[in-house]
Automatic annotation (TrEMBL):
The keyword Signal is annotated on this UniProt entry: yes
Signal peptide: 1-23
Protein name, as recorded: Secreted protein
Keyword field: Signal
Taxonomic source organism: Streptomyces luteosporeus
Length: 142
């Protein structure tokens, strides 16, 4: 009888755990403070209304690798370019490979290892064509 109760208790615990896992994936995905997990840490995440050019506010990476994700909404022949700029001397340390189409919010990416931890940077986005809403996110590797 005790074996049946143990098996039933284990099955109920597993089902409850599975239910929590399905109900709250975002809570599980967020690492605990000081957990020491490897991956990308978000530094900046912001959308911007319709425009042809936008420079984001400054952000400061604490590692030497920087990854930006950017894009624009629209599908009318407009093209977008991105640059990662060091604030103190306005030096471009990373840029997109030419222009990419604005494709209804499709993500474009730039990764650079040419950044200094502790220095401020910003992202400069430019669109050739009609104005579109833009977004940008910056991450550093941990």
């Amino acid at each position: 009888m005790n074996a049946r109760r143990s098996i039933a208790a284990a099955a109920a615990t597993a089902a409850l755990g599975a239910g929590l896992a399905l109900a709250a994936p975002a809570a599980q995905a967020a690492p605990a403070a000081g957990a020491g997990t490897q991956g990308w840490h978000m530094l900046f995440n912001q959308p911007h209304g319709p425009t042809n050019k936008w420079s984001t506010p400054d952000f400061v990476p604490d590692r030497g690798n920087l990854h930006i994700v950017y894009g624009c909404y629209g599908h009318d022949g407009a093209k977008i370019k991105a640059e990662i700029v060091r604030t103190k001397d306005r030096k471009v340390v990373g840029r997109s490979n030419g222009s990419d189409w604005c494709a209804d919010g499709a993500e474009k990416q730039v990764v650079t290892g040419d950044v200094r931890a502790g220095d401020a940077y910003y992202i400069r986005l430019r669109i050739s064509g009609p104005k579109h809403s833009l977004y940008a996110r910056a991450f550093d590797a941990h």
